[in-house]
Amino acid sequence: MTENERRTPADEAASLVEDRFPHALGAMLGGSAAQGRATPTSDLDIAVLLPDDDTSRREVVRHRGRVAELFVHTVAETQGHFERDRGLRRGTLLFLYDQGLPLTDDPHGLLAATREQARAALAEGPPPLTATEWERGRYVLTCFLDDLVDTPPSDRYEQLSLADFTLREAAHLLIAHHGCWTGIGKWLPRRLLGADRDRGEALLAGHRAVAERADPAPLAAAAGQVLDLLGGPLRDGYAQRWRA
User: Which has more pLDDT, 4 or 212?
Assistant: First the structure.
């Protein structure tokens, strides 16, 4: 076994922080790498806590052949980034601090304090959707669902695209219904199943039925159950104010 093969994702992440941010006040490794689910090509999600005379930013770098996504922020701007994260309802940075692996020592307690801030925000949960957002969500899901059912299997590109949008909209609404954190990409099914195992599995199985058998019926039924939770489909009568 070579030296590179013996290095863990945490080793690689710690090396990156040491090389690029020797002045860091703290750093965390999150995502799949912190949960033991990383593949050899998985990127590294790293939060880096810096002094206030530095600059907050998000950047992607390559370190020793491995891609890393860096969430760099100063101590003074931490709370603002956490509030923005909460507003997006995904909690990406919050989960990184809550569930991640510390990469540096914390002699001054700043990293520990930052983790407590993140945990407090996570415990508070994402902000609830407004009445306008719920109404729009019902309308949009109804539109996607109607188009999915109306699209013949021969139009596979359109059918697959509509299945994707139907799944995403239904998942986000169902997760919000339970007051849980949502996600994108591979985190969407994880958050969905965490929020509602039975209905989440029905949505995911329905999406798979479209992909594998060109059959929209299971996904339509699962998405219809989500709409029923929220007051039913919304078509005529929906109105949205436009601003110039």
Answer: 212
